[in-house]
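Hey, I'm writing a tutorial for new members on how sequence and structure tokens pair up, and I'd like a real worked example in the thread rather than a made-up one. If someone can provide the structure for the chain below, I'll link this post from the tutorial.
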Amino acid sequence: MGSSKPLVGAFAGALFSCTILSAGAAEEPVNLDMINRIMDQGSNHSEVMETLRQMTDEIGPRLTGSPGMRAANDWALEKFRGWGLTNPHLEGFDFGRGWSFEKSVVRMTTPRLRQLYALPVAWMPGTGGVISGPAIHAVIKKKEDFEKYEGKLEGKIVLISKPRGVKEPSNKVFRRLTEDDLAKKTDYQIPDGKPVNYERFADIVLLRKKMYTFLAEEGALAVVRISPRDAHLIEASDYLHRIGDTPTIPGVVMASEDYGRVVRLLKNDHEVTLELETEVTYYDDDPQAYNTIAEIPGRGRNPEIVMAGAHFDSWIVGDGAVDNGAGSAVVMEAARILTALNIRPRRTIRFALWSGEEQALFGSIDYVTRHLATRPETDDEDKKRLGKFFTMADQWPITTKPGHAKFSAYFNLDNGSGKIRGIFGEGNLALQPIFESWFAPFNDMGAATVILGRTGGTDHLSFQWAGLPAFQFIQDPLDYGSRLHHTQIDTLDHVQAEDLRQASIIMASFLYHAAMRDDKLPRKPLPMRPTNGRDDEDEDEDESEDEQDSSE
């Protein structure tokens, strides 16, 4: 595993050529002629960068429910039609309000004049003109903190975060995975049966909702949060997009360096006056958001299904080029490659560009529950409004739909523009020799590692929770996590074109082979309620401000 596998000659007269795996492993057919054709189409005739350029430079940010997201939906449909895919359509689901911002100007006017770098928090209202007021530092980390500030916030601009000392970088900003890095990922821990607990994150979001209401009722003018990044990078995400849940008080996220300066001045008994002007727009004409779907039809009247997907939505401060325009462009390019080759697959190959992923996998969860399987909803009405992501993994039983039996696999791409280095096997031991065989022709491109371990944070989880084979590829991290993810510099400038061509070729090859093999991909048993329970005593209930920010 993780090393190159030798290729042997093709069986004479057979449709598929074969790679022979290591001793004792089963043979998995690999069509080397088709891989050559995919390579030619995906390298010499690639359109992946032009697709991504149009998506980012011309359309720009794609916040779910916003005009940018709607424009991207329509644009992608036209792309799919132009490439010859069948049944291009949108699937709507309940989401909430659309939102965009047009202007953000934040200054310190006393004790000295200084331009500050801050951007509006998603789904918070604008200031309605220039507002000015004294700053106050009021750290609120739990509901019990409210009473400390009762009667003290009227007419104030409230800085609610604890300042964070800027740390010098301890690693390289731009990084590719070494063989040692990949080898470390292969250490597999046997699952303990405990489902992942997302309720802590839900509690953070719900506390924010109560805090914004408290600040507005106390007469505060605006709220300021610290960016979880350094170097003037801004993340301005929030999750209160439901109609009736959006805050009534304006809010911005301020660069950590500017925020720290303001807090230090206050701590040293200086009166600090801040001036804010933000302009935003809400869109309530359509409370639905939309997934963009198209396919290459399989043979027969009711063929089985193979899927590829990536989340199409982004946050607001950058153009969403690496998160996740890159993954979306790769999925679209794989669709273009396979239609250009006029393949006639056994199984339908369906392509999905999800909306609402950034807010909690809304789009992919809706697709799974609509077509494949359901799990009961929580009885907690507050968490229910946040989305099924926060409680879905803990709800039992799983009720399958007819489409569940005909589903073969889902492949996801959502970790920036780094090249594919392997795939997370999600604990499915039967898939390891199959995936190693499919990677064998691409070993010299750096793609070889198949690990049994799991990964989270993106749309394959929606399918995994339904007991279906669903996978995220391992990618070179580059500078995705170190500086680009959710920030204002997430633009086309930082995308690696050669890596996207490599990823598109591998994605197309995996889809082709999954669609053409004799049987569906092997499955694990359908998940059932764990019998060993969860040991809540092991969890630390005290969560710092930094941990809250990083969870976003």
